[in-house]
Each structure stands twice: as C-alpha cells, then as structure tokens.
Specification:
This protein is mainly alpha-helical. The protein is built from 16 helices and no strands. The longest helix has about 40 residues, at about 25-60.
C-alpha cells in the first residue's frame, strides 16, 4: 500500500479543501459587515451622551413641577403630569398668549429668512457659473459671512445697529437723508428687520455654496442644446437649472428651516437675554421662560412641543417631497 506524498505545488489546494480553511471567508465576511458598525460606534456614543440623554431628561422635566426650589435635586421634584403642557397651551392665559405670539413671529421670521437666503444664494451661484475675470475672488468674498464665527459677526452687527454711532444710521440718515431722525434698530418694531438682516447675511452663503455645488452636476450640453433651440437665459433657468437642482433644493430648504427656526445664538447675542417683543423668537422665549422665571417645568414643556412641531413639519415635508420626486420620475 503506497502513500501519496503532498507536493509543495498541491499544498495550497489541500489547505483550501481542509474544513478549517472553508470557514475563513465567512469570518472575513462577518468582519467586513461588522466594520462599519464598529467605526460608527464612537459617533453613536457621542450622539447618545450629547443629544439623546439631555433630550430624555428634558422630556422627564416637562412632567415635573420643577422650580428654583428643586434645582439641586430635580429628580425629587413633585410630579405634575400634563399640567405644564395645559398651562403652555392655554392661549387664553398670559403664558399661552405670549408663546403663541412668539411662535407666529418665529414662523414669519423663518419664512422670510429661508426665502431670502435661498433666493440670494441661488442667484449668486447662477451668476457666478460663467467664466470671467475675478470670479474666484467674488466666490471667496461671498463665503466670508459663512466662515466668520457667529458671535464675532453678530456683535459686529450690533455695533453697526447702534442708534447714535452705528454705521447703518450713518449711511441711511446722515448720508442718504432717509428718516427725520436716526432709527432705533435694537428695540421696537425695527428689531425684527434688524434680526432678519443679520440672519440672511449669515445664512445665504450656505445656500450659495450648496447650490453652486449642485450646478456642477448639470451638463453644459443641455444649455448649449437649449440655446440652439432659441431658449433664452430665463427659460434655461426655468426648464433646466431649477428642475435639475430640485433634489439639492429639497435638502437645502429643510436644513435652512431647521437652523433658522431653532436659532438661539443670533437673537441672544444681538439683543441680550430679553429680546424686543417684535423679535421674540421662540428659542429665546423658551430660554426666558426657563431661566428668567426659574420655571423649568414649563420651559421643558415648551421645548417638547417645539420638538414635536419640528418633527411633524419635517415628516410632512419629506413625505411631500418624496411623493413629488416619484411623480416627476414617472
């Protein structure tokens, strides 16, 4: 009886046929499937600690009678159930009326700010698509407001809006002669327009950058073919540019809406802890209701209602835009 020797050339084939070697591809496949989750684990843990845990604590605080007497031991504050929500949603009382007015002011401010940011950003991106001398310089200058720190930019605007020494009144009243006297921009009804100007100045470069990136994916052949067919600039924008930018604009509008509706830094730095009634955004209103009156239960209830509203609007918006995209594809 002879015994077959395993030559070096046949050794790899024998190893592949071995039972242990057949499990190696499966193990490597499992490792490849698990690798993305392992890489995402640090981000998920940070998201849990930074966002989800405080959010759950805020939801729990909204069901408690949490005032300044229970700040040190808020977990033992008396349970109030839905009382904080009923007080917040009672629009016949002072708390509910002020919250409703702040909500309507925020809606008006958000619509104007998002609309102007999108309009200015899209117009600038379309105009800077053509090659001309100085285009790179203009693109860089347009991104300066987006690159500046928020606090430095808003503080600069606060100095510019000063009644006696500000640059705005110096140009409008002293140089152009508009108005009988210098206007108050940080108090009264003009505070809304001052806040809107700062918000648009700070937000439109992001729209410009996003739309400019989206325009790079539109083939130039489509514009050349439209020009040969006799389509002018406005027809090209209407029938080529805007339809091609629809996916980009859907994301852009949603992001601008969430950023603007939740904006706290801009009114806080511009007006301080107490914003004028005309510019009382809901983010600053919740801050005042919580840290000025020390009624954290009511403030938490307002925050929960704001979260539910934003989730509802986001869900409806995504549903409508997804249906619209499917309909256009068909």
């Amino acid at each position: 009886m002879t015994q077959t020797a395993v030559t070096p050339e046949r050794e790899p084939a024998v190893r592949k046929a071995a039972p242990g070697g057949a499990r190696t591809p499966r193990r490597s496949g499992r490792r490849r499937l698990a690798l993305p989750y392992v890489l995402l684990l640090p981000a998920l843990l940070l998201e849990l600690l930074v966002h989800l845990v405080p959010m759950l604590m805020g939801v729990a605080m909204s069901f408690k009678e949490l005032t300044q007497f229970f700040i040190r031991d808020w977990a033992n504050a008396p349970w109030s159930g839905l009382d904080n929500f009923s007080v917040t949603l009672d629009f016949d009382a002072a708390v509910g009326q002020s919250l409703l007015k702040s909500f309507l002011t925020t809606c008006q401010f958000t619509v104007l700010s998002v609309g102007l940011c999108w309009l200015l950003g899209t117009a600038a991106a379309v105009l800077l698509q053509e090659n001309f001398r100085g285009r790179a310089v203009l693109r860089t200058l347009f991104l300066v407001p987006y690159a500046l720190p928020v606090y430095a930019a808003v503080i600069t605007w606060a100095f510019m809006f000063q009644r006696d020494n500000g640059l705005i009144n110096h140009v409008l009243h002293d140089q152009l002669g508009i108005g009988d006297s210098p206007a108050f921009w940080l108090i009264g009804d003009n505070s809304f327009w001052a806040l809107l100007a700062v918000s648009v100045w700070k937000g439109w470069p992001f729209a410009f950058l996003t739309v400019m990136a989206g325009l790079q994916n539109i083939p130039r052949d489509m514009y050349e073919a439209a020009a040969l067919d006799g389509a002018g600039v406005w027809k090209q924008i209407r029938h080529i540019t805007l339809p091609s930018l629809r996916p980009v604009n859907q994301v852009l509008v949603l992001v601008l809406f969430l950023w603007t509706f939740n904006d706290f830094n801009t009114p806080f730095v511009l007006f301080g802890k107490a914003a004028p009634e005309a510019a009382d955004l809901i983010s600053l209103h919740i801050y005042q209701s919580s840290f000025q009156t020390w009624n954290f239960g009511t403030g938490s209830a307002m925050s929960v209602l704001l979260l539910l509203f934003l989730l509802l609007v986001t869900g409806v918006y995504l549903l409508l835009t997804t249906r619209g995209r499917k309909t256009s594809d068909v």
